[in-house]
Automatic annotation (TrEMBL):
This is Galactose oxidase. It holds the Pfam family Kelch_KLHDC2_KLHL20_DRC7. SMART domains: Kelch. The keyword Mitochondrion does not apply. InterPro entries: Kelch-typ_b-propeller, Kelch_1. Residues 1-21 form the signal peptide. Keywords: Signal. It comes from Karstenula rhodostoma CBS 690.94.
């Protein structure tokens, strides 16, 4: 039996979860008693967006890429400024004020009910080229839900502009770890940079130099702050195929101790992975560059218990995706949209070949109470 205790805004997962009864290692698939719940689809199919919870009732999906085409063929991809809000109690969507710029792979977080959007990737030209050709911008904004308005804040400092980073909130601070500055058909990089944004002063701050770089560059990774620790989970190093299974961590209360690499690796190395935290467990979903599936997508759902540091495999995603963004609220991890096939891998549907397919599918992984 898994027990969820709600104490003062913290969701604590009891240690007598299904993990205790399950065998050690990665064998819990099939014994996973959590469930997948289908929700009202996104109004607009997209991928390479980010998702944040504004409060306990409202989820926001920011930016990303849409694809012009239809269900059988996607003709081209373009970056969007679209912001859609999901109301959890009514299971409905509405459109909010758009981002001031079109942005994919945005870095975003919520502090005190405000959305902070801290850089991302933008098209290199307008109108954009047919295929992905993106570079980093440091432009940063804050969104107020009541006013439904965006305001510009200090940009990422010169040289630290990037998208596709891991973002974690700790008190008034937002930490941005790793990421990338370029993504096109022939070139991707992977940043080690760690920076911090102070939502009180609305300024960027340095972290101690020993904490200013993760152990190896990562983009398209998952991660979060759990308690006082920032985690960077999986992701890739430069090209798509260089998938990684590492868990990097930084104690935010003792940053001068620097980053650590956990001895416990993900069961499945992957990039384009997303995740969220419920209680004391991190849940990781999906990803791309799977050599074992025709669409190149990882269906894997896996969970990491921070204490003991141990990974377990859960039941696969019913609709495997990459380039999506998950957010945890209560005992659910919400996963709106994403890509149904590895970018650039040709898939034939109804006699038509597509090289990418964004979905409007929206579901949640619900952890058993
Ligand atoms: C969100 O829900 C948690 C758990 O029920 C609660 O403790 C917290 O106060 C809520 N937060 C807000 C902003 O309403
Ligand atoms: C959820 O939606 C997916 C995609 O449409 C579908 O394949 C699956 O059967 C649905 N699951 C349930 C429980 O309805
Ligand atoms: C989808 O778009 C392609 C390219 O324009 C076209 O050939 C095809 O007939 C369309 N399919 C449907 C179902 O509309
Ligand atoms: C954030 O900025 C405020 C206002 O300048 C300052 O008082 C506070 O110490 C800063 N927080 C951190 C964690 O540095
Ligand atoms: C692919 O399948 C093989 C054979 O089952 C397995 O050994 C390997 O770990 C799989 N690779 C990935 C990346 O899932």
């Amino acid at each position: 039996m898994q027990l969820l205790l709600f104490i003062g805004g913290l969701t604590l997962l009891s240690t007598t979860s299904f993990a205790a009864a399950a065998p050690k290692g990665y064998q819990t698939q099939g014994e996973d008693r959590n469930r997948w719940v289908n929700l009202t689809s996104l109004p607009t199919p997209r991928q390479e967006h980010t998702t944040v919870a504004v409060d306990n009732n409202t989820i926001a999906v920011l930016g990303g890429v849409e694809r012009i085409g239809n269900d059988s063929v996607q003709l081209r991809v373009f970056t969007t400024n679209l912001v859609e809000l999901y109301d959890i109690p009514s299971d409905t969507w509405r459109t909010a004020a758009p981002l001031p710029i079109k942005l994919n792979h945005p870095n975003s977080a919520v502090v005190n009910g405000r959305i902070y959007l801290l850089g991302g990737l933008v098209d290199t030209q307008e109108p954009p080229t047919a295929e992905a050709d993106w570079i980093a911008t440091g432009k940063s904004y804050v969104y107020d839900l009541d006013a439904n308005a965006w305001a510009e804040v200090a940009p990422m400092p010169t040289g630290t502009e990037r998208g596709s980073a891991v973002v974690g909130v700790h008190g008034e601070m937002i930490y941005v770890a790793g990421g990338m500055t370029v993504l096109n058909l022939v070139n991707q990089d992977a940043s080690t940079t760690v920076t911090a944004f102070n939502t009180t002063s609305l300024q960027w701050q340095r972290v101690p130099s020993i904490a200013a770089n993760i152990p190896e560059g990562r983009q398209h990774a998952a991660g979060a702050v759990v308690g006082d620790t920032l985690y960077v989970v999986g992701g890739r190093w430069y090209e798509r195929t260089n998938v990684r299974d590492t868990v990097f961590s930084l104690n935010l209360l003792n940053q001068i101790a620097g980053w650590r690499t956990s001895p416990s690796h993900m069961p499945t190395a992957r990039g384009g992975v997303t995740g969220g935290v419920v209680g004391s467990s991190f849940f990781a979903f999906g990803g791309e560059c799977n050599p074992n599936t025709s669409n190149g997508i990882y269906p894997q759902a896996e969970t990491y218990d921070f204490e003991p540091k141990e990974w377990k495999r859960l039941n696969d995603m019913p609709v495997p995706r990459h380039g999506t963004a998950a957010v945890a609220v209560g005992n659910r991890i919400y996963i709106p949209g994403g890509g149904l096939q590895q970018d650039g891998v040709p898939i034939e549907r109804n006699g038509v070949v597509s090289y990418g397919q964004a979905t409007a599918h929206f579901d949640a992984y619900e952890i058993e109470n």
